Predict the 3D structure of the following.
Amino acid sequence: MKIKQLSVFLENRPGQLSAPIRALAEAKINISTLCLADTKEFGILRLIIEEHHRAKTVLEQAGYALNECEVLAVEIPDRPGGLAEMLEVVSAKRVNLSYMYAFSCGQSGRAMLVLRFDDPDRAISELTEAGMNIVSDSAVLFGPKQAKN
């Protein structure tokens, strides 16, 4: 249920985002989803990639500093209050959420969140107990129709 995410550290100046994306494209590595966050001096490109080990090698060989961590993908209702309900569970159980981002999963009435917790195992337990759907690695990467179980 935990998903590997790569975080690539980039200088915050023109052209810095296209280079790692081009390196992955030239290696024929597809990006499933991404998020870009920035500060005045640097950016963090967060990537979920099917072939994360190969992507990590490609990016390291291209000279990028990066980090690998585990995140969760949680499916929530795509309606007013869907996100609030999930956050209320996290807050009530005092599970620390570091950051999150969302992407379209192509299922009607559902939204997908990628969440980074300090303690992902505890987050899995608390969210599952509350009836939240934590999706598998393959469902995030390949979509629900092509998911490998």
In short: The chain has two domains: 2-69, 71-142. The first strand starts at residue 2 and ends at 11. The chain has a mean pLDDT of 87. The chain has five helices and seven strands.
